[in-house]
Amino acid sequence: MPPGGWVAVAVLGRSRGNRGEVTALALSDKPERYQALREVYLFGPGDSGGSERYEVESTWFHNGTLIFKFQGVDTISDAEPLAGAEVRVPMSERAPLEPGEFFQSDLVGCEVVDRRTGESLGRVSGWEDSGGAGLLVVEGGLLIPFARAICVEIHPEAKRIAVELPEGLKDLNRP
Fold first, then answer.
1. In this predicted structure, what is the pLDDT of residue 47?
2. What gap in Å lies between CA 157 and CA 171, rounded to an integer?
3. What domains are defined for the chain?
4. Are 114 and 163 in contact (CB under 8 A)?
5. What is the SS3 assignment for 75?
6. Residue 157 burial by CB count (10 A; 0-12/13-18/19+): exposed, middle or buried?
7. CB proximity list for 149: less than 8 A, separation 6 or greater
8. Contact 12/24 with Cβ under 8 angstroms?
9. How far is CA 103 from CA 24, 33, 66, in A?
């Protein structure tokens, strides 16, 4: 286990073609992130400890689908057992962010505080893609749009997000 742990960058799908290529679900919206990969670790489905190191021969996108070609994986038979594996890199190798960008994994666990009242609304327990800005899932089922107008202070290093919720939002989407 590297210092800081692992970060998943993709999940492998089925084999593609007859040269050992594998489709993947990209977990980053930055295609250039995959071009820089040279070495990755594959973790089997549900596997939290064991990993196997793979050298990346090449990556590219075909019709919006990420494709991996690993060194030594040269046939369909070599590629098929990789389906479902998470492609991870050490946390220290995460792609650099632009100012004002955040890793979703760094937001999980942050306490969400109403900036006007100081009231804690709970901790971020997950993330939902909504086709737009995305939603912070807060303990208890509260969904908060991850938008600058609402999430006005974001400090993942302090595990704190201050929000200014629009009138009625807190009651609108709680179970």
1. 47
2. 29
3. 6-93 (2.40.30.60), 104-172 (2.30.30.240)
4. yes
5. coil
6. exposed
7. 164
8. yes
9. 20, 13, 20
Q: Which structure tokens are listed for 48?
A: 């939290």
CA–CA distance, 106 with 62 (Å, rounded to integer) = 30
Other Cβ atoms less than 10 A from the Cβ of 90: the count is 16
**Alpha helices, H only, the chain:** 32-35, 76-79, 104-107, 169-172
Q: What's the rounded Cα separation, in Å, for the pair 10 and 43?
A: 11
Residue 46 in this model has a pLDDT that exceeds 50: no
Strand-pairing partners, residue 43, are 86
Q: Which pTM does this prediction carry?
A: 0.66
Amino acid present at 46: G
- Per the document, the length of the chain is 175
**pLDDT tens string 77-105:** 999 999 999 999 998 888 778 888 888 87
Strands (E), 17-91: 21-26, 39-43, 52-62, 65-70, 86-90
